[in-house]
Amino acid sequence: MGMSSLKLLKYVLFFFNLLFWFCGCCILGFGIYFLIHNNFGVLFHKLPFLTLGNILVIVGSIIMVVAFLGCMGSIKENKCLLMSFFVLLLIILLTEVTLAILLFVHEQKLNSYVAEGLTESIQRYYLDNSTKAAWDSIQSFLHCCGVNDTSDWTGDRPESCPSEQGVKGCYMKTQEWFHSNFLYIGIIIICICMIQVLGMSFALTLNCQIDKTSQAIGL
User: Fold this and answer.
1) Which of 28, 73, 86, 137 is most buried by a 10 A CB count?
2) Which tens digit of pLDDT belongs to each residue from 97-107?
């Protein structure tokens, strides 16, 4: 019974992490694509590394490393790798909870910082190609113009701005989208956290099962 439980846990955890490793590869690939083509450029010049490409590369790399540890630890029945996988997942989960609390507590400061950063970047539209690419991509994708409205553009509006009247600003439109989809975003975040907790539980259970099996066969 012990050996069959061990095999079941081992392969469940292996395929569970293999799926996430492929997801990490896809995210990393998209990140590299955005870095090469620079479609979204730089909006916050105080934080030039904060681009979509960099974020996707970092997230994809972390997922691949953690999933690799889970795959190898489960298939090799290696307790060291399993506990490394468990600790990394725990650190990621605690980091996510901490970030969520900080975002909730400092929401007004964050909103002000983002609005100021976007307004400042508009002034650099004709001076910096990466900023121009970022604003053109965002305005075309979101069908918006400026930060709050079209008046943010002091001169002629860029061609990427929609031509119709009453177009909303990109910051305002993003806020509206976030508030209207807040429930779905919350559900997705909760599901991600539950998957992480499930992965940690599988790793810890498999680790304990390896100990029990080793004791049963006299190792």
Assistant:
1) 73
2) 898 898 888 88
